[in-house]
């Protein structure tokens, strides 16, 4: 099988009960199964249909239509589950039907229309065979269901020397998911880092240049991998060709857990790669970054 280029994106196309066509990044999909019988939970969130067991472990099943503000699936368990695994947890998205897998380029994915509001669960829009396909922001859906409890940073987690090493150092975070951006920056600000954030690779490049020109270069870039228009790999490739800002330390932050990511990240010139989202791991990765810069 030939390797797809850094800017190729595989989308699984599926339909909600309302008939709306959506796409989800195939890398975030573990498997697709017919909807099994579900056990209802008395205290469940209104968007959670119930729980089932998949190969020995519990799987929470989310009514995706309801979760993004549409008509949900009626009482019966028709339809199917898209099983996703990201940010260290696994869940089933109940949808009407799965259509097919398509390939597109991240360069053909446009950000969602500006007026779509913060409640819109769409991370990008592309065209497949002349039809508009909206790409689901699955992190946002999951966050709305169970807002990530920002673990209190354990005082014992970092030594005084490590805290002093991080204090006031300049970091830029780039992520197209508003939720992921918030989670990361809350952590960095607790570590007393001087932290800025942007929503796209293009904006990151612009800010890195501006800070460099102002004599206050960014020291560490924490970048998401799965972004529209220019992904994290392409961002690192572009950066490494630049004589001025090309030396910045890059930590790639991904919601996908795979060794392939690590190999590819190192191949394009990233310094480190990390699976979202763990305060402990992120803190330690930043200590590693600044220790290596000393």
What report would you give on this structure?
- The chain is an alpha/beta fold and 294 residues long.
- A five-stranded mixed sheet has the order 8-1-2-10-9, with no helix packed on it. Strands 3-6-7-5-4 form a five-stranded mixed sheet. The chain has a five-stranded parallel sheet with strand order 12-11-13-14-15, sandwiched between helices.
- The N terminus is likely disordered.
- The protein has two domains: 138 residues, Beta Barrel (OB fold (Dihydrolipoamide Acetyltransferase, E2P)); 134 residues, Response regulator (Rossmann fold, 3-Layer(aba) Sandwich).
- It is built from eight helices and 15 strands.
Key terms:
OB fold (Dihydrolipoamide Acetyltransferase, E2P), alpha/beta, disordered N terminus, Sig_transdc_resp-reg_receiver, 294 residues, CheW-like_dom_sf, phosphoprotein, five-stranded mixed beta sheet, Chemotax_regulator_CheV, single chain
Q: Topology, pairings included?
A:
Layout: E1 8-15, E2 21-25, E3 29-34, E4 48-54, E5 57-63, H1 64-67, E6 80-86, E7 89-95, E8 97-105, E9 122-128, E10 131-136, H2 138-145, H3 160-166, E11 170-174, H4 178-190, E12 194-198, H5 201-213, E13 220-224, H6 232-240, E14 249-254, H7 259-268, E15 272-275, H8 279-293
Parallel strand pairs: 2-10, 5-7, 11-12, 11-13, 13-14, 14-15
Antiparallel strand pairs: 1-2, 1-8, 3-6, 4-5, 6-7, 9-10
Helix pairs in contact: 3-8
């Amino acid at each position: 099988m030939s390797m797809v280029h850094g800017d190729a994106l595989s989308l699984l196309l599926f339909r909600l009960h309302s008939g709306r066509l959506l796409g989800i990044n195939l890398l975030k999909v573990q498997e697709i199964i017919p909807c099994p019988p579900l056990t209802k939970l008395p205290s469940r969130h209104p968007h959670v249909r119930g729980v089932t067991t998949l190969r020995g472990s519990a799987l929470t099943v989310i009514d995706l239509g309801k979760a993004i503000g549409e008509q949900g699936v009626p009482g019966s368990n028709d339809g199917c589950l898209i099983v996703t695994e990201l940010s260290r947890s696994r869940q089933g998205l109940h949808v009407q039907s799965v259509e097919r897998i398509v390939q597109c380029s991240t360069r053909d994915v446009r950000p969602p229309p500006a007026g779509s509001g913060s409640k819109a669960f769409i991370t990008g829009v592309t065209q497949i065979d002349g039809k508009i396909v909206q790409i689901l922001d699955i992190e946002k859906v999951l966050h709305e269901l169970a807002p990530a409890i920002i673990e209190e940073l354990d005082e014992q987690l970092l030594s005084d020397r490590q805290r002093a090493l991080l204090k006031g150092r300049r970091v830029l975070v780039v992520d197209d998911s508003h939720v992921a951006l918030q989670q990361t920056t809350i952590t960095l600000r607790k570590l007393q880092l001087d932290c800025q954030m942007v929503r796209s690779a293009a904006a990151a490049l612009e800010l890195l240049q501006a800070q460099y020109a102002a004599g206050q270069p960014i020291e560490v870039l924490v970048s998401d991998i799965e972004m529209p228009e220019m992904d994290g790999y392409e961002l690192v490739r572009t950066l490494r060709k630049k004589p001025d800002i090309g030396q910045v330390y890059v930590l790639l932050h991904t919601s996908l857990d795979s060794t392939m990511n690590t190999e590819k990240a190192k191949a394009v010139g990233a310094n480190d790669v990390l699976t979202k989202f763990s305060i402990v791991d992120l803190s330690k990765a930043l200590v590693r970054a600044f220790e290596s810069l000393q």
